[in-house]
Amino acid sequence: MIPSAFEYLRPTSLAEATRLLARHADEAKVLAGGHSLVPLMKLRLSRPSMLIDIGRLGELRGIHEENGTLVIGACTTHYAAESSALLQQRCPLLAETAAAIGDVQVRNCGTIGGSIAHADPAADWPAAMVALNAQFTLASSKGTRTISASEFFVDMLITAMQSDEILTEIRVPSNPPRTGSAYLKVAQPASGFALTGVAAQVTLGTDHRVQQVTVGITGVSSKAFRASATENALRGQAATAEAITQAAAHAADGVEALDADIHASPEYRLHLARVYTKRALLRAVERAGS
Amino acid sequence: MKITTVVNGQMHESDVEPRMLLVHYLREVLRLTGTHIGCETSLCGACTVLLNGAAVKSCTLLAAQADGAEITTIEGLAKDGQLDATQEGFWEEHGLQCGFCTPGMIMASYQLLQRNTHPTDADIRHALEGNLCRCTGYQHIVNAVQYAAKKMRETAATA
Known about the structure:
The complex is a heterodimer.
Chain A: E1 7-9, H1 14-24, E2 28-31, H2 37-42, E3 50-53, E4 63-66, E5 69-73, H3 78-82, H4 85-90, H5 92-99, H6 104-109, H7 112-118, H8 125-131, E6 135-140, E7 143-148, H9 149-152, E8 153-155, E9 158-159, E10 166-173, E11 179-187, E12 194-204, E13 210-218, E14 225-226, H10 228-234, H11 241-248, H12 266-289
Parallel strand pairs in A: 1-3, 2-3
Antiparallel strand pairs in A: 4-5, 5-10, 6-7, 6-10, 8-9, 11-12, 12-13, 13-14
Chain B: E1 2-7, E2 10-15, H1 22-29, E3 48-51, E4 54-57, E5 70-72, H2 85-92, H3 102-115, H4 121-127, H5 139-158
Parallel strand pairs in B: 1-5
Antiparallel strand pairs in B: 1-2, 3-4, 3-5
Helix pairs in contact in B: 2-5
């Protein structure tokens, strides 16, 4: 349970970090909170010969709003996101998602960027990220680029990030009026990971019809996905329990669930996806109305 | 590599391998064995300490990540021979049997009471999700934290 040996570097700026990573991309891993990476290293499933610690870079931490967009530094801890008054007011789905991660100790250390870059299929953040069509900023010594969450998550533990890139920022839109959201999760009791995690957000028109609806689901497939069939069935409808129930029945349409494992069969995961989509949408609509 | 830490108010300068875990640094280099290693998989919380005031699982941190930090372990809670309210609560309410989870439970409880002076039982159980106990069934732990919360409120009120 002791990691294999590595060289440890702690750059004092993002620019220095990207320069180091450019030189050592093949051998180095980036360390933020370490709560995905260090457990893997203790099991020796990951054996980088170099760690570049960016966890203390102030320029990568913090949450602010600019022009109707919330900008979250990648090294913001889950606890900082959970307790952010700005997120609670302007995008409560993110605060609620953060609060559901792991436990207090994990939330004190783990970071939103680290979790997203790790792309665990049962992590909580990806559900909200695809639901909100989050935009990720990736930096390297060659410059920066932006990529959407759905393009970023490629497969289980695989992302579109290059080995010389660092995720620096997550951007999501602030909520319009009459918007309600919910993140509901079936947690595996020991690990706390999501057997199913559903992030739902609904914006109602003044006529109480569903103007906008988005549902992101994690834990079920090799990466988080949008329940588009549910969204299409519900958009424009009156926001009733019947409409939600019917729409939620399609939450897993066309989805390939993870292979059976010690926790669940594929059929059970798909079933949970449908049930929790319904529950999350009911709660989101309730919150939108109040 | 050289790291500097302040642990329970005492400064330490040490030369450690980058791969040394914080829990091994505390136990084997500083000989503070109150912090326990329970599961090796970041689940049980027996290794919980405070790092710059935040409860963390020391088995999931590198000592290198604690360079320059202030750390409080279970050994550092009592002041001038006086038990902290959380420790007193675990004593008075029999919040332990074998005691293996207890240092981590107390550190996590301490964190909760820093953040929430009026926790409900549900708040306490939620705050201790990162700490596993095989002996007590948790009820006496909840009682212990409520005892400590009440004692801290009374102390604050008379201060």
